[in-house]
Amino acid sequence: MLDAEFIRARILEALPGSEVDVRDYTGTGDHYEARVVSPDFAGKAMVQQHQLVYAPLQQWLKSGELHALALKTYSPEQWKKLGTR
């Protein structure tokens, strides 16, 4: 079974310097949500941002071990505009 810290570490390996928060939103160990703020997202469409996050997790998504990963992705500029810092 995966855990939030494992998923967070995989995302950080692929997107160093990002701010990543992951939580298990069902308690079943296979449905997670993540908020990722990364400079790598600057100038990219949301679908491209999500592809960058999903890429290091493909093995677990394909196997079904990670059934769902809901994403909220932001560039640092987008995050700052939201006033959440």
UniProtKB/TrEMBL annotation:
Belongs to the BolA/IbaG family. This is YrbA protein.
